[in-house]
Specification:
Elements: H1 2-8, E1 14-15, H2 25-29, E2 35-39, H3 51-58, E3 62-69, E4 80-87, H4 94-117, E5 121-124, E6 127-130
Parallel strand pairs: 1-2
Antiparallel strand pairs: 2-3, 3-4, 5-6
Length: 136
């Protein structure tokens, strides 16, 4: 149903934000290099649900967020577009860590989408290649 709606509306680029559903591999294959997602960890660490809790449980000293292309297969494994790092403090809770990560998400995601739309980066052989450092 989602694919039919996107086709009807002639959508050719998909930006996921807070979309808590796993897209089928068949769906993702219809939009290669045209679906992006943001995840609240430095991938490939802590993919999937509860990334902030996973980071706290692992005792890492840094976490953050990752913008990536969605690829068929396991969740949160597509080619990485951009990442931002935030410190993890000894007294952090899921809420406090999430808040710091969200600040970076709000900065990083629009910048990454802008770079894609301005063709400043491309997906080549499963890797993101930056063509320009300039952000218009």
């Amino acid at each position: 149903a989602l694919d039919a709606l996107l086709q009807e509306q002639r959508i050719d680029f998909i930006v996921l934000a807070g979309f808590m559903r796993i897209l089928s591999d068949a769906f993702v294959r219809k939009y290669p290099g045209r679906i992006v997602n943001i995840h609240p960890s430095i991938l490939p660490s802590f993919a999937g649900l509860n990334a902030q809790q996973q980071a706290l449980d692992a005792g890492v000293r840094a976490s953050g967020c990752t913008v990536h292309f969605v690829a068929p297969g396991a969740v949160d494994t597509g080619p990485i577009i951009a990442q931002a790092v935030v410190p993890v403090y000894s007294d952090d809770t899921v809420a406090s860590l999430s808040q710091r990560i969200q600040v970076e998400e709000h900065r990083l995601y629009p910048a990454a989408i802008r770079a894609i739309l301005h063709q400043q980066l491309v997906l080549t052989n499963g890797r993101v290649v930056r063509l320009s450092q300039r952000a218009d």
